[in-house]
Specification:
Order of helices and strands of chain B: EEEEEEEEEEE
Largest interface: A-B, 21 and 22 residues
Oligomer: heterodimer
Radius of gyration of chain B: 13 Å
Largest sheet of chain A: 6 strands, mixed
Distance between the termini of chain B: 37 Å
Number of strands of chain A: 11
Strand content of chain B: over 45%
Number of helices of chain A: 0
Helix content of chain B: under 10%
Order of helices and strands of chain A: EEEEEEEEEEE
Helix content of chain A: under 10%
Largest sheet of chain B: 7 strands, mixed
């Protein structure tokens, strides 16, 4: 049983499209992280949320604590957004989703 | 500011050996956490250290251990290596409060033959 479920597993989009990646969790949490990992590259933390919504450039992350659900949105997607996006729920330890592999085609 | 530094970058060991990995956090960061990443299991949490004390722990066997020094640098040790321990081992640092953004190192790629 996975404490954190992500969807979709794979996503291909045309440049400029609006993208949504979903994350549902079954455990109680103190925070939810969104991470980005480029092929062969390290991991970058995009957002850490405990409630509401955060925005950074073209990226928006939201969380609904009651529904145990978070979303990562990318507006006006670009080929450089191609990466694996991973959500992680934390409460004393980290529970990771399996990741969403995003490919943005020019 | 220098980022999180992990050494070595690559490591090859044989079954039964032990290995020690090192992680130097961003200056001023007091929390260091360790993760294992494999193609099959994805990312998994190993443990977190804060001010030289293990604060949180994942579900790994006792062969996996760690420690943190007074300068916040951390080491992770795996004893009696198994083939399944082949993975990318990542560490991350944060200033120290429980819910803060993490800064990841580039990882150590461990291959067990």
């Amino acid at each position: 049983k996975n404490e954190v479920e992500q969807s979709p597993q794979n996503l291909t989009a045309q440049e400029g499209e609006f993208i949504t990646i979903n994350c549902s969790y079954s455990v109680g949490i103190s925070a939810l992280h969104w991470l980005q990992q480029h092929p062969g590259g390290g991991i970058v933390s995009l957002f850490m949320l405990s409630s509401g919504k955060k925005k950074h450039g073209r990226l928006i992350a939201t969380i609904n604590i009651q529904e145990k659900h978070s979303s990562l949105h990318i507006t006006a997607s670009h080929p450089r957004d191609s990466a694996v996006y991973i959500c992680a729920a934390t409460l004393n330890q980290f529970y990771f989703g399996t990741g969403t592999s995003l490919t943005v085609i020019p | 500011k220098a980022g999180v530094t992990q050494t070595p970058r690559y490591l090859i060991k044989t079954r039964g050996q032990q290995v020690t990995l090192s992680c130097s956090p961003i200056s001023g960061h007091r929390s260091v956490s360790w993760y294992q990443q494999t193609p099959g299991q994805g990312l998994q949490f190993l443990f977190e250290y804060f001010s030289e004390t293990q604060r949180n722990k994942g579900n790994f066997p006792g062969r996996f251990s760690g420690r943190q020094f007074s300068n916040s640098r951390s080491e992770m040790n795996v004893s009696t290596l198994e083939l399944g321990d082949s993975a990318l081992y990542l560490c991350a640092s944060s200033p120290g409060d429980a819910n803060e953004k993490l800064f990841f190192g580039s990882g150590t790629q461990l291959s067990v033959l």
